[in-house]
Amino acid sequence: MAASPSPLILTEDERYDLITSNIQEVLRPDIIRGILPVRPLEIFWGTATTGRPHAAYFVPAIKIAQFLRAGCKVKVLLADLHGFLDADKAPEATLENRARYYERVIGALLQAVGVGLHNVQFVRGSSYQLTPAFSRDLLRLSKRVSVHDAVKASSEIVKSMGEPVMADGLYPMMQLLDEEYLSVDAEFGGVDQRKTFALANDTMTKALGFKTCAHLMNPMVPGLSGGKMSSSDPKSKVDLLDDPATIHKKIAKAYCAPGKIEGNGILAFIQHVLLPYSQLQSPDGKTAAISVVLRDQTEPTTFSSFAEVTEAYAADYLTPQLAKQIVEESLIKLTTSIRHQFDTDKEWQRIADAAYSNLTVSPRGQDTQKKQNKKEKKEKKEKKEKKANGTNPTIQDGAVDDQ
């Protein structure tokens, strides 16, 4: 595990810049600006406890490390009921073990990037979402939010493959109430949650008299394989427990077209994980540094910004093979402590087996999975056709199963 650097004194502007670093959009930045001079900002990140967390989870982990460096108080919501509502991704019989698995693996992940777990509070959604008070507020909210707006808010999050069901509308409304019940000032998530965040911004104060929170959205980072890094497809993801040989094999097959910046999951990982991680670990806490020997050179070149990386990549000094080497070596190093914790923790191994082995999927879940598989096959076929016609295949966004 990387050692946490000594706390640094940051100005108010430096704290805000660190909080919003690599963030695509902020809703109500005035809320954050107003709180920073007065007290620590309280923020939460929620993740539905569905498939096994993979390498894309390093993106929110790095942001959590940055939030803490900026003096924020952070809560991690293990959204077990949301996982159950989302097309039965987490069958009811697995909810307890999925939540326990997530708490262990995310805790190990945060420690791997230098976060002390005493600074992070883990909260399970079902610990308050099944209370009479929450149910009452959910009913109150249901009278003020239309079915259209509720389903629209979840359209980019919930994997509905046909006619929307009631769960698709409950999902975002419960997320709105999470902000109130977790007593936070801001919520962090992917930009795919923008519709839910906008609904919260328009509704919480007007409908229920609750305070309005700020929302920070990171971009949807491309997957390492050139498509979505899916928890349900072992071939498309780098699992946090993969051994070095498996990581090498998967990175070797990763999509990394020469000179192509957009949609390049390898470069995206350097931008959103490795550069900010190196910055957090630097003596001054501000200077990023990634070193590699470039093509036709004998001495290492050190990159301190993503602009320098992309310039070298576009000029082919930083080749796809070298970029993959950087990511592979870093992933192996970052996941070593996670694998060690798992290998030496018999209880965690038992939880993993109970959470993800021999699952019985409901009829609706089977139907949804069949449709999803059919959709993915169609997309792969279209990519092959485009490639055969001389065009680049479309790169889908990789995503963490944010709440």
Structural class: alpha/beta
How large is the radius of gyration? Answer: 21 Å
Instruction: Outline the low-pLDDT stretches.
Output: 359-370, 390-398
By DSSP, the count of extended strands is 8
Helix content: 40-55%
The side-by-side strand order for the widest beta sheet comes to 1-6-5-2-3-4
Distance between the termini: 27 Å
Order of helices and strands: HEHEHEHHEHHHHEHEHHEEHHHH
Estimate the mean pLDDT confidence. 88
Principal-axis shape equals: globular
Counted by DSSP, the helix tally is 16
Question: What portion of residues belong to β-strands?
Answer: 5-15%
Largest sheet: 6 strands, mixed
Mind explaining what this structure looks like?
With 403 residues, this protein is an alpha/beta fold. It contains 16 helices and eight strands. Helix 9 (166-181) crosses helix 10. The longest helix is centred in the C-terminal third of the chain and has 26 residues, at 363-388. The model is unreliable at 359-370 and 390-398 (pLDDT under 50).
Can you give me a brief rundown of this structure?
It is built from 16 helices and 8 strands. The chain is of the alpha/beta class and 403 residues long.
